[in-house]
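re: that complex we talked abt at group meeting.

here r the seqs, copy pasted straight from the sheet so there may be weird spacing, ignore it
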Amino acid sequence: MTAFQAGADYGDGRREEARRPAAIALDHSDPASKRIIVGYGFWIFLLSDIIMFSAFFATYAVLSGETAGGPSGRDLFDLHNVAIETACLLLSSFTCGLAAIGARAHNGLMYYGGMAATCVLGLGFLAIEIREFVGLVAQGAGPTRSAFLSAFFTLVGCHGVHVTLGILWLLTMIAQVFAKGYRADILRRVLCFALFWHTLDIIWVAIFTVVYLFGAGA
Amino acid sequence: MSSTDDYQPLRGDDHAPGDEPVGRHEIAEGVVGYLVGLGLAILLTAVSFFIAGTSLVWHPSIPIALVVLAIAQIGVHLVFFLHITTGPDNVNNILALAFGVLIVFLIMVGSLWIMYNMNQNMAPMAMPMG
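got the structure back, here u go
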């Protein structure tokens, strides 16, 4: 614990270097590197985000049968589209991993190529999702139709908002590495972005199982 | 000024979630890890979509199979993409994950259980009028 506090207020590498002996004297251990502290803090944020999603999942699971005489998941969901969305997000998770390796090795081709591929696949996912939402609203199955559809649009839409914000973050990280190079602070942000993007894919696994496969099958 | 050398932990007994425990320049090793993860995830996804639409298996078993496949795939993502492992350098990350999973479990199972009971015990009000 003292290791985390000792590392928390460091401004840059030089001050970190200057203050390290004091920390050793206090608790006989070096402070964890800033990358570990930042990564751990962001991991805690991601877990809290997953907990927020679990509340939406619980709402959806409770309300999934309350169609108020309107269409149910079996009438609405097109598993062909969902399979393409899943493929986009899964491949983007892979290319995001390649970009993380590229950033680590200071390999521009891998980093920029991986990030660009992630961006294109993420935009493809969003395009299919927006088309699905517009189609649902057009056939009178908007979020106001039934409790089932309210819960559906809240859950899937919240994930879509996360993907949108993730793409904005992705573009920012491309620009920051381009402008400032592979600096330690920039690379910590790349680490957090990669964690965020992989977590979005984990949430999508739960969505395509609980919402689409359950809805279309059972 | 700032170096890029904070990948390696100072004492070597911790690492950030998402960081692999391999050296910085071993690109091939890292790519192989992601490829294995991608292969497993594609396999599990394909089986999920196949099971959901098939009539080959006993029908009531489908939801259970889907849940198991989804949990397996989430595990694959955690290990191969987020690099959350059971190693001694990952204890903090695992403990945070375990607490998160506990809360998610309480929210999901608690909500379903309570709402199911309330539905069961509710007096049928709308039925006679409808």
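couple things i noticed - Chain A is about 85% helix and 0% strand. Residues 49-217 of chain A form a domain with the Four Helix Bundle (Hemerythrin (Met), subunit A) fold (CATH 1.20.120.80).
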